[in-house]
Description:
Layout: H1 2-21, H2 26-31, E1 37-38, E2 42-45, E3 49-50, E4 56-63, E5 72-79, E6 88-91, E7 102-105, E8 110-120, E9 125-134
Parallel strand pairs: 1-9, 3-9
Antiparallel strand pairs: 2-4, 4-7, 5-6, 5-8, 8-9
Amino acid sequence: MKKSTSLLFSLLLTLVGNIATADFPDALKQHYYPAVIKPHHIKLNAPQIAEQSSHVPIRIESIQRPEQTSHITDITFYLSHDTSTPAASFKLNATTMAEGLSARMRMPHGKNILYSVAKLSDGSVVGGEVTVKVVYACNGGF
Length: 142
């Protein structure tokens, strides 16, 4: 009975691990291969509904780093409709704080998923995502 319990537990851990990494599209994962993007480590602040597609504000609230001694070397943003090219990218050094980094982005009308991926100095890669719906200013429609 003990073997079956440990087998079930390891199977459950494998499934949970696969679910957690399934958040990012395959095209985006290929950019950072062989590193695995650890999802849900970057907390982004963006409006749920934006009225101007050319001025959607985004802000990095926090980044959970696996090791506090590592620093962020670069942060890249991708939009769900085109994950092959970055929407914005920032290079950082050891003294630059990523928390609080803000920008305004152009997004197409409709539902957009904004992915952020950060490379760390220790070689690990963390990510996060937020959904923004861009509507026409006057009626809230598409």
